[in-house]
Structure formats: C-alpha cells, structure tokens
Design brief:
The protein has 218 residues and is α+β, with helices and mostly antiparallel strands. The chain has 2 domains: 153 residues, Histidine kinase-like ATPase, C-terminal domain (Heat Shock Protein 90, 2-Layer Sandwich), CATH 3.30.565; 30 residues, no CATH class. It has 5 helices and 6 strands; from the N terminus they run ββααββαββαα. It has a 6-stranded mixed beta sheet, covered by helices on one side. Helix 1 packs antiparallel against helix 2. The radius of gyration is 38 Å and the shape is elongated. The N and C termini lie far apart (84 Å).
Length: 218
C-alpha cells in the first residue's frame, strides 16, 4: 500500500515517537551523499539495516528535491555566511514499528507527483518514493514545507515464539508374566556410602580387618 498525502497533517504526528536523529545540511550538491551516509549510520545504530537500501534511495530523492528548491550554492559558505544560509534539514523518526524520513526546507511550494512520461521538469523522482515507501506526503510548515516517507521496519515486529516441545511420556511397562525371573535389586554397602567408612583414622583395627576381609571375599 502506497498512500500519498499532500497538505494534511502527517499520520504519525499523533503517534508515540520512540527516538529521533537529525542532520542540518547546506544546499550543496554534496548534501545528498552526506545524507545517505547519515541514514546508514542511524539505521545501523537502530538495528534496522534491512531497510537501508530503500531508505537511502528515498533520502537521495527527497534531499535532491529540497536542495534544488532551496537553490544550490556554488561554493560552501564560510563561518559568517552560515547564519544567513537557508538550511535543508533531514530528520529520522523512530515509531513503534517503522521509521519516518523527514526532509524540511524553507520553500512553500509542495511537491507534485509527475508521471514518468511527463515533460515537466521535477517531480519524477517522487515516483520512486511512491514505489518504495509505505506512505508518503507533504505538509506546509510556518517556515516552509516538510516532505516525509514512512517505511515499516521488519526487525520491529517480534517473531512468533516457537511452540514448547513437550517431553515424551514415560513408557509404562505391562504386567510381568508369572514365570518372569526377577533380578535382585542392587544396593550399595552402607559401609562404603558412609564417607567415614573410607577414612582410616575413624576405623578401629577390627572394623578395618572386617572391611578388608569382605573386599577379598567379594
């Protein structure tokens, strides 16, 4: 199911957020590769490597669109220029059973999904987001817009516990025939099982002699 929501409040705004990770980027061409690296590190930390490939592709498309909308800078800004530079913000939101990829920028125009054969520039990368994400959408903010995509995390769903294996029932022996020969029950010699019987210091000579005689006879 790939649902597209534009303009409305994202569904996860009302859900419990378990954890987040955030990165602010300058609108440079290198921002996309930095964003992909950030996502890989975050998903490794969150034990969600199974969605790393899809998440990296979605981030590439969303950050590329945000950088283009913001305006690609010709060179990295210096320390004094950073304060006036319009940033692109990437945030990962961990939910109970999935993650949301958010990309914020300072432009107000919401993205439009284009068909692959459309001649209009822009928007065709969202077709890939539509295919990979479980749900995605765009939402206006007081200072620009937010584009988001939701991916379920298989690791977040606990596996069914295996059924307990019951031990086999003890075998019940049938009634013995009348002419069955019964073997005598073997019983330990109490003089041997008693630890004091094996300690020569606690034995008097007579007891030791009886014990040796019994062993030779056996």
């Amino acid at each position: 199911m790939n649902r597209h929501r534009t303009g409305g409040e994202p569904f996860y705004f009302s859900q419990r957020i378990r954890f987040t990770d955030q990165l602010s980027l300058v609108a440079l061409s290198s921002a996309v590769s930095v964003a992909r690296h950030f996502v890989r590190l975050a998903l490794t930390k969150w034990h969600a490597r199974s969605i790393e490939g899809d998440a990296a592709l979605i981030v590439s498309e969303l950050v590329t669109n945000a950088v283009k909308a913001t305006g690609v800078l010709n060179s990295p800004p210096n320390w004094a220029e950073l304060e006036t530079t319009r940033p692109v913000t990437l945030r990962l939101v961990g939910l109970d059973a999935g993650i949301v990829i958010e990309v914020w920028d300072t432009t107000r125009e919401l993205p439009v999904l284009r068909s692959p054969d459309d001649d209009t520039e822009g928007g065709r990368g969202l077709v890939l987001v539509q295919e990979l994400a479980h749900t995605w959408g765009a939402h206006p903010t007081p200072h620009g817009k937010l584009v988001w995509a939701h991916l379920p995390v298989p690791e977040a769903v606990p596996e069914a516990a295996p059924e307990a294996v019951r031990p086999p029932l003890p075998h019940r022996r049938g009634p013995e025939p009348e002419n069955a020969v019964r073997r005598p029950t073997m019983r330990a010699d109490p003089r041997i099982t008693d630890p004091r019987a094996l300690n020569p210091r606690t034995l008097n000579p007579r007891a030791l002699g009886r014990l040796l005689t019994g062993l030779r006879a056996g």
